[in-house]
């Protein structure tokens, strides 16, 4: 797990251009959803990606499996640059990557049986060819995710949210991918069902040696599944490192505020917690603040923050441990 | 202390093409001034429907509501729409989950606040303007005078939810019902809203009903907790007692299934989360006996299959801590939930 990178991004930007200027807006612009991300995801690990709505975490996840086109920068998958890949090779790459979506109600075709949905990647990638072999494989996949294979002819509306999410997981695993982006996979499930899906994802990863990017706004869930954690704010990774280090000893003031804001289900502890309540809202990703993007809400803002854009710097071993941890904050020495 | 709002034996039934759906059954709770009652449950547990029923906000044609809800000495159940309109806003204010769908997208913030202010008496235009600015200030919206001219889409999610709270406070309600009011918000914004509601509650002595599925939020803000499953209260009690000794297998299951933030172990050294098998039952087809029985790991008592267990005091806990289960916890000590 401390091994080589399976996925690596360098200077990755994904900008969504706004419509041309009109009476309501004078200058053209773009939503800078992902705005300069260097990140590596190592073979066999789960990298948790946390952040609040609009920080760009889902866009980053989608870019890694080439569902959205990067504007700038490179994405390497297993050593080759996929941003410059010819179509043929891209198809092979797509078999090795997959995505599990947030909303199991919106991400399954309501007019297809779940068996057809799970079989689709097999057809696209010409795997398990022949009717009976394909049928057997769909049954296997359904069993793998805890669904009864004889429900293959049912339609999505006949399943609960948790079961639909299992269908989505089976579909994602059909092509035998190496790398799976789990985009808020439990966010739309009920509390009593979330734990089932979390456990399933963890078990599948361990059994199949998968590499996950686990995108979630739920820091407690991320701590449960992720070996390393990256924190995003306004299109940037502001902190990344060992899950325990980032969760217990945050190196960035934003991570600190985020950790302190997560409610803990223990009354005496929850009431007495020191909560860092951030003021204001996330600035617009169209016009991010100069210098450090968090400075407009940062409780520890000081002189260099407006002028210098901090870069990720290693904090390794600062708490006496060997844990790997980097943060982009001038509190650890002015950079950028 | 006497309760501001007292609900007894509330039941709500919807008629559906498949037959009657029993969405709330036999619910009791009290809301006291300056205190927070949390109603906890998953989707379909009846937690939202029960508060909508009190305020007459369910479609009459397909809904049957029975039981009693006494607010300010008067019965709410069965009152006319006209009479209930005076209670809504001025007596009981409500904040819903999604401020984007509960605000009118084509009216400015000022128009929507003015509507709430005028609903409870004649007020001059200047007074409305002044009071609106005051309300937005109260809920922590910076530059309030300018924000009055904004439309909902020009505000962030957190700001919209603050506007919703300002509207709910316009009639100076004595009870505020917040239905999943922070669920759609990010945790840092949620922290702002929770802090805001706590401050307003302190200042005004408002009784708060906080309806949510989030046991972490409840731990921080609630005085008393009602846990609902399949339309019924399965456990209730003061927040500390209930979390210290959760006694209904469903409450225990919920608390044990939560991933823990403050566990210093890395992910690979953690145990799998505790899970409850299965799903909540269909309200049109509730199982006989205890509705939780099909998912329950402790369904040993023969009565589980035939009787709805009554709410009874939890042995070894405070008097007001009650659970509706035939399962009896072992003596204190090993009853602690893993955290």
UniProtKB/TrEMBL annotation, chain A:
<dbReference type="GO" id="GO:0055085">
    <property type="term" value="P:transmembrane transport"/>
</dbReference>
<dbReference type="InterPro" id="IPR003439">
    <property type="entry name" value="ABC_transporter-like_ATP-bd"/>
</dbReference>
<keyword id="KW-0067">ATP-binding</keyword>
<dbReference type="Pfam" id="PF00005">
    <property type="entry name" value="ABC_tran"/>
</dbReference>
<protein>
    <submittedName>
        <fullName>Peptide/nickel transport system ATP-binding protein</fullName>
    </submittedName>
</protein>
<dbReference type="InterPro" id="IPR027417">
    <property type="entry name" value="P-loop_NTPase"/>
</dbReference>
<comment type="similarity">
    <text>Belongs to the ABC transporter superfamily.</text>
</comment>
<dbReference type="GO" id="GO:0015833">
    <property type="term" value="P:peptide transport"/>
</dbReference>
<dbReference type="InterPro" id="IPR003593">
    <property type="entry name" value="AAA+_ATPase"/>
</dbReference>
<dbReference type="InterPro" id="IPR017871">
    <property type="entry name" value="ABC_transporter-like_CS"/>
</dbReference>
<dbReference type="InterPro" id="IPR050319">
    <property type="entry name" value="ABC_transp_ATP-bind"/>
</dbReference>
<dbReference type="Pfam" id="PF08352">
    <property type="entry name" value="oligo_HPY"/>
</dbReference>
<keyword id="KW-0813">Transport</keyword>
<dbReference type="InterPro" id="IPR013563">
    <property type="entry name" value="Oligopep_ABC_C"/>
</dbReference>
<dbReference type="GO" id="GO:0016887">
    <property type="term" value="F:ATP hydrolysis activity"/>
</dbReference>
<keyword id="KW-0547">Nucleotide-binding</keyword>
<dbReference type="GO" id="GO:0005524">
    <property type="term" value="F:ATP binding"/>
</dbReference>
<feature type="domain" description="ABC transporter">
    <location>
        <begin position="7"/>
        <end position="259"/>
    </location>
</feature>
TrEMBL record, chain B:
<keyword id="KW-1003">Cell membrane</keyword>
<dbReference type="InterPro" id="IPR017871">
    <property type="entry name" value="ABC_transporter-like_CS"/>
</dbReference>
<protein>
    <submittedName>
        <fullName>Peptide/nickel transport system ATP-binding protein</fullName>
    </submittedName>
</protein>
<keyword id="KW-0547">Nucleotide-binding</keyword>
<dbReference type="Pfam" id="PF00005">
    <property type="entry name" value="ABC_tran"/>
</dbReference>
<dbReference type="InterPro" id="IPR003439">
    <property type="entry name" value="ABC_transporter-like_ATP-bd"/>
</dbReference>
<comment type="similarity">
    <text>Belongs to the ABC transporter superfamily.</text>
</comment>
<dbReference type="InterPro" id="IPR050388">
    <property type="entry name" value="ABC_Ni/Peptide_Import"/>
</dbReference>
<dbReference type="GO" id="GO:0005886">
    <property type="term" value="C:plasma membrane"/>
</dbReference>
<dbReference type="GO" id="GO:0016887">
    <property type="term" value="F:ATP hydrolysis activity"/>
</dbReference>
<feature type="domain" description="ABC transporter">
    <location>
        <begin position="7"/>
        <end position="255"/>
    </location>
</feature>
<keyword id="KW-0472">Membrane</keyword>
<keyword id="KW-0067">ATP-binding</keyword>
<dbReference type="Pfam" id="PF08352">
    <property type="entry name" value="oligo_HPY"/>
</dbReference>
<dbReference type="GO" id="GO:0015833">
    <property type="term" value="P:peptide transport"/>
</dbReference>
<dbReference type="GO" id="GO:0005524">
    <property type="term" value="F:ATP binding"/>
</dbReference>
<dbReference type="InterPro" id="IPR013563">
    <property type="entry name" value="Oligopep_ABC_C"/>
</dbReference>
<dbReference type="InterPro" id="IPR027417">
    <property type="entry name" value="P-loop_NTPase"/>
</dbReference>
<dbReference type="InterPro" id="IPR003593">
    <property type="entry name" value="AAA+_ATPase"/>
</dbReference>
<keyword id="KW-0813">Transport</keyword>
């Amino acid at each position: 797990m401390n091994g080589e990178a399976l996925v690596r991004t360098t200077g990755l930007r994904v900008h969504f251009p706004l419509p041309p200027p009109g009476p309501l807006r004078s200058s053209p612009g773009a939503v800078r959803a992902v705005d300069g991300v260097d990140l590596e995801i190592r073979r066999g690990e789960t990298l948790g990606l946390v952040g609040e709505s609009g920080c760009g975490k889902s866009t980053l996840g989608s870019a890694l499996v080439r569902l959205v086109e990067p504007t700038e920068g490179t994405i390497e998958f297993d050593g080759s640059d996929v941003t410059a890949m010819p179509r043929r090779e891209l198809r092979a790459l797509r078999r090795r990557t997959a995505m599990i979506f947030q909303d199991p109600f919106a991400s399954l075709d309501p007019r297809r049986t779940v068996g057809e949905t799970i079989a689709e990647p097999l057809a696209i990638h010409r795997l398990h060819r022949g009717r009976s072999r394909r049928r057997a494989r769909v049954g296997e996949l359904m069993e793998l995710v805890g669904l009864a294979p004889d429900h293959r002819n049912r339609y999505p509306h006949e399943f609960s949210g948790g079961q639909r999410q299992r269908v989505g997981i089976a579909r994602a695993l059909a092509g035998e991918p190496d790398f799976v982006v789990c985009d808020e996979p439990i966010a739309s499930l009920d509390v009593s069902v979330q734990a089932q899906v979390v456990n399933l994802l963890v078990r599948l990863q361990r059994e199949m040696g998968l590499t996950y990017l686990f995108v979630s706004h739920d820091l407690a869930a991320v701590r449960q599944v992720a070996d390393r954690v990256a924190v995003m704010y306004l299109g940037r990774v502001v902190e990344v490192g060992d899950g325990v280090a980032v969760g217990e000893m945050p190196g960035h003031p934003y991570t600190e505020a985020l950790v302190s804001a997560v409610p803990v289900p223990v009354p005496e502890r929850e009431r007495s917690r020191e909560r860092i309540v951030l003021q204001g809202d996330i600035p617009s990703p169209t016009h991010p603040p100069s210098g450090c993007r968090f400075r407009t809400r940062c409780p520890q803002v000081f002189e260099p923050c407006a002028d210098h854009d901090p870069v990720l710097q290693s904090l390794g071993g600062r708490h006496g441990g060997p844990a790997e941890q980097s943060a982009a904050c001038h509190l650890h020495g002015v950079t950028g | 202390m006497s309760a501001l709002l007292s609900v007894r034996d509330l039941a709500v039934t919807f008629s559906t093409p498949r037959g009657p759906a029993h969405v709330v059954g036999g619910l009791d709770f009290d809301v006291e001034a300056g205190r927070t009652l949390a109603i906890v449950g998953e989707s379909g547990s009846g937690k939202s429907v029960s508060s909508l029923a009190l305020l007459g906000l369910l479609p009459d044609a397909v809904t049957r509501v029975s039981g009693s809800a006494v607010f300010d000495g008067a019965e709410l159940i069965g009152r006319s729409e006209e009479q209930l309109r005076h209670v809504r806003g001025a007596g009981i204010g409500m904040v819903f989950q999604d401020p984007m769908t509960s605000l009118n997208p084509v009216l400015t913030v000022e128009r929507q606040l003015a509507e709430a202010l005028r609903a409870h008496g004649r007020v001059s235009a200047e007074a409305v303007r002044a009071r609106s600015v005051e309300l937005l200030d109260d809920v922590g919206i910076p530059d309030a005078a300018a924000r009055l001219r904004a439309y909902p889409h020009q505000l962030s999610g957190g700001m919209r939810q603050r506007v919703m709270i300002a509207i709910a406070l316009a009639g100076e309600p004595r009870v505020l019902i917040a239905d999943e009011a922070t669920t759609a918000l990010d945790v840092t914004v949620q922290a702002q809203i929770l802090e805001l509601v706590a401050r307003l509650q302190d200042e005004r002595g408002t009784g708060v009903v906080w309806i949510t599925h989030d046991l972490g939020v409840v731990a921080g803000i609630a005085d008393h907790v009602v846990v609902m499953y399949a339309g019924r209260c399965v456990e209730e009690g003061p927040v500390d007692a209930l979390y210290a000794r959760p006694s209904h297998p469903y409450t225990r299951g919920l608390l044990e299934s939560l991933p823990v933030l403050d566990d210093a172990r890395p992910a690979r050294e953690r145990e799998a989360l505790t899970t409850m098998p299965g799903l909540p039952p269909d309200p049109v087809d509730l199982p006989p006996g205890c509705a939780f029985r099909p998912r329950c790991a402790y369904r040993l008592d023969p009565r589980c299959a035939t009787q709805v267990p009554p709410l009874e005091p939890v042995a070894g806990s405070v008097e007001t801590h009650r659970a509706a289960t035939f399962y009896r916890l072992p003596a204190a000590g090993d009853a602690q939930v893993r955290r």
